[in-house]
Amino acid sequence: MFIDYARIKIKSGNGGDGTISFRREKYVPKGGPDGGDGGRGGDVIAIGDSNLNTLLDYRYHKIFKAGNGKPGAGAKKTGSSGANCILHLPLGTEIYVLEENKKYKLADITQAGEKVILSAGGSGGKGNYNFATPTNQAPRIATPGVKTEEMELELVLKLMADVGLVGFPNAGKSTLLSVLSSARPKIADYEFTTLEPMLGVVYISDYQNFVMADIPGIIKGAHLGKGLGDQFLRHIQRTHLLLFLIDIATPDPLEAYRTLRSELYLYDSFMDKKPHLIVISKTDTLSPEDLKQKLTEIRNAFKKEYNDEIFAISAVSKDGLDELKYKIYNILQQSR
């Protein structure tokens, strides 16, 4: 199950208390103070894990606590530290702290093995041997360990991909992803076949590839929550290139493109500045004569209004796929 949002509570460990103790040995009647310090509380640590791609583990398990430090002991022995609590998170996870009606970003996990201390454990208290002075050689003072507070966190997963597929439902995005990569999304001839984001690796050669993301189809008003748009638009925020896929059977491809661009801009204005390609799909559904006429009309319309070129492809017959694949790779190389 793909889960890209969760709310959890975390608490780092309390510090152990310092101890009041005095040295007691035979023939040493006044051995002096020897109370040890308390141990440090454990930290709550987030670690980026490239083997994960969902926040499913945090949907049902809501509270994560690190171990408390142990109190000090005689003979100036320091208490043991509390065990750390490790949160393994998929790459692309943003972590927010929730405080009353406000929230602020605490971390953004983007690298495998990246470690972020979300909540540090409390320091241990001081034992009474720390307070001995020439005028007070038998202090009966020790300090408690630092107590930590519980924090509420919001985890938001934004997939890490190079290319984001954008289009209306049933535009052929899943078919294109399945043909270009080894991904196997569900494909059917009805709207909203894709109900969760899919990633696929597109290989150019043994050492050249890029990652493509397919999200559920966008409809007008997606940025406001209509359809499935607002749940998944964030998954293409990190991409370097947007690929707008428009079915050649669409009555007005230019208007369809305007709507798609508008929804992205209203959701996040920065996405309007990303490099993009316009792809007309399902060209195999028209006869050669009708296809030539239709593509001429579409090319002229996009050239006149946006000065943009279009790519015509068929994921079924594989027409135009190699050209598109290498064009995407070259744009990504330039953007990097």
Automatic annotation (TrEMBL):
Lineage, top ranks: Bacteria, Pseudomonadati, Candidatus Cloacimonadota, Candidatus Cloacimonadia, Candidatus Cloacimonadales
EC class: hydrolase
Described function: An essential GTPase which binds GTP, GDP and possibly (p)ppGpp with moderate affinity, with high nucleotide exchange rates and a fairly low GTP hydrolysis rate. Plays a role in control of the cell cycle, stress response, ribosome biogenesis and in those bacteria that undergo differentiation, in morphogenesis control.
Domain of life, source organism: Bacteria
InterPro entries cross-referenced by the UniProt entry: G_OBG, GTP-bd, GTP-bd_Obg/CgtA, GTP1-OBG_CS, GTP1_OBG_dom, GTP1_OBG_dom_sf, OBG_GTPase, P-loop_NTPase
Main location: cytoplasm
Record domain OBG-type G: where: 161-333
Binding of Mg(2+), residues: S174, T194
PROSITE patterns: G_OBG (PS51710), GTP1_OBG (PS00905), OBG (PS51883)
Protein name per UniProt: GTPase Obg
A GO term for molecular function: GTP binding
Obg domain mapped to chain residues: 1-160
Cellular location(s): Cytoplasm
NCBIfam families per the UniProt record, alphabetical: Obg_CgtA, PRK12297.1, PRK12299.1, small_GTP
Name of the gene this protein is made from: obg
CDD domains given in the database record: Obg
Binding of GTP, residues: 167-174, 192-196, 214-217, 281-284, 314-316
Gene Ontology CC annotation, any one: cytoplasm
